[in-house]
Design brief:
The protein has helices at 30-35, 77-84, 103-106, 120-132, 155-163, 189-196, 211-223, 265-269; strands at 2-17, 20-27, 43-48, 52-57, 68-73, 90-97, 110-116, 140-146, 168-173, 185-186, 203-208, 231-234, 250-251, 254-255, 262-264. The chain is α/β, with parallel strands linked by helices and 275 residues long. The strands form three sheets. A seven-stranded mixed β-sheet has the order 10-9-8-7-11-12-15, sandwiched between helices. Bound molecules: flavin-adenine dinucleotide and FE2/S2 (inorganic) cluster (FES). Flavin-adenine dinucleotide binds at residues 43, 52, 54-57, 71-73, 75-79, 118, 121, 236-239, 261.
Length: 275
């Protein structure tokens, strides 16, 4: 882990929709490229020199070496400056930070991944981890929902996942205009959870999406008998240091940057202000 920013070069940027792009960074120092290890669900502090820093989840898989991918929404100062950065431009990267998904606990069992909108960013890293060692998991299902077909992030990749036979991947949108070529489901991700047909009593579930998304997904999961200790959700808080020193991300007695950002539902209901 690097507590001071190390220099990385913007290798490539690719628009995913009108407000989200994928940024690929390569560390300047070769040694750093080798030794940068992370868990799915961890994040980095990305700094744009002269502008500031922002926490961003790593969206590439931990087995992909030599680069890291970040999927970023243009939100404010840092992310807008990132969008203006030319290829080969330099940024600072600290981390990786946070706990990540408990992949060792998840291995050997069923896994359901539930994503909404930009929530696919950290979950894509988990998906890549799982596909790299598919035999280490039993049944795997992915359900992903966005507002409309144009806002489906990683569109091609997602459609490839739908065609795979070793996992079940289902996509949905809140609405599709008649003239759009969307042949998939229209409706809530909770419909898709039913459609996976997966027995959820003893399944690990990783959920990430916008704030309103959690309420109805969690209700659905609990109604299907999911264990509160096996539902893993990602909590976002304002962060400054990323390393448990400044107190900006504290919820109750937990630091989101070191105890999280991944919490079980069981842990989350025992934190103030969450539900
Ligand atoms: C652990 C973690 C992982 C994240 N991963 C990603 C990611 O993969 N991709 C991505 O695009 N973004 C991610 N974010 C969110 C990102 O860090 C914020 O959008 C950040 O504020 C962007 O910095 P900025 O300077 O561009 O925006 P700012 O100028 O800081 O603010 C932009 C707007 O967002 C609001 N805001 C800022 N932070 C938060 C927050 N945590 N919760 C709610 N509202 C907020 C501000 O009030 C303002 O309205 C993550 C955040 C956390 C904590
Ligand atoms: S961001 Fe500083 S303590 Fe968590």
């Amino acid at each position: 882990m690097s507590l001071i920013p190390v220099i990385a070069r913007l290798e490539e940027k690719r628009a995913l929709d009108h407000n989200h792009s994928l940024f690929r960074f390569i560390f300047k120092e070769e040694q750093m490229r080798e030794k940068f290890h992370f868990q799915p669900g961890q994040f980095v502090m990305l700094s744009i020199f002269g502008v500031g820093e922002a926490p961003i989840s790593i969206t590439s898989g931990p087995d992909e070496k030599g680069f890291i991918d970040l999927c970023v929404r243009k939100a404010g100062r840092v992310t807008t400056a990132l969008y203006s950065l030319e290829e080969n431009g330099k940024v600072g990267i600290r981390g990786p930070f946070g706990n990540g998904y408990p992949v060792d606990k998840m291995r050997g069992g069923n896994l359901l991944i539930v994503a909404g909108g930009l929530g696919i960013a950290p979950l894509r890293s988990l998906i890549r981890y799982v596909l790299w060692r598919r035999e280490a998991f039993k049944e795997v299902a992915i359900v992903y929902g966005t507002k409309n077909p144009a806002s489906l992030l990683f569109n091609e990749e997602m459609r490839e996942l739908v065609l795979r036979r070793d996992i079940k991947c289902l996509l949905t949108v809140d609405s599709a205009q008649d003239n759009e070529s969307w042949k998939g489901h229209v409706g809530s991700v909770t419909d898709l959870i039913d459609m996976t047909g997966m027995p959820l009593m003893d399944t690990s579930v990783a959920v990430c999406g916008p704030p309103g998304f959690y309420k109805y997904v969690l209700e659905k999961l609990l109604s299907l008998g999911c264990s509160k200790g096996k539902i893993y959700m990602s909590l976002e808080r304002r962060m400054e240091c990323g390393e448990g020193k400044c107190g900006h991300c504290v919820i109750g007695h937990k630091y989101t940057c070191i105890d999280g950002p991944i919490f079980t539902y069981w842990d989350a209901i025992n934190l103030p202000e969450i539900f």
